[in-house]
Amino acid sequence: ASEVRQLGGALDIHSKAGEGTNFVLRLPQTLAVTQAVFVRIGETSFAVPIASVRGVGRVARDQLGAPGATYAYGGEDYVLYDLGLLLGHAPAKAEGQLQMPLLLVRSGDLRAAVTIDQVLGNREIVVKPVGPQVASVPGIF
What we know:
Layout: H1 2-6, E1 10-16, E2 20-26, E3 32-41, E4 44-49, E5 53-60, E6 70-73, E7 76-82, H2 83-86, E8 99-107, E9 110-115, E10 118-127, H3 132-135
Parallel strand pairs: 7-9
Antiparallel strand pairs: 1-2, 3-4, 3-10, 5-8, 6-7, 8-9
């Protein structure tokens, strides 16, 4: 409840014996709760909206070097990228693994298979829209 108040929202809980409990969560319109897939590159974790994730895969390391290389999934080709390099971090290494883990993402007509070090799982997150200065940064959807 204290986290909800910090976000400018409110949580009301009403219980009736034998009938159950009713939870009402109110958040400002500038905030949203959504599911996200958490991935790791090096020591950094990133959240990717689950609505953009089409799947998870693995690719042989020797397939990553070719420019314009693709990964086929669900009858569609996804261009291979390194998420770490796209975000200005060190490249994904996935040390100790024979193949590189991939996160298959889609936004509109754009499809990408991005290499990562590890999928950490999914959870609900609170999202606040970015301002116009950040929205114009390449790579931010």
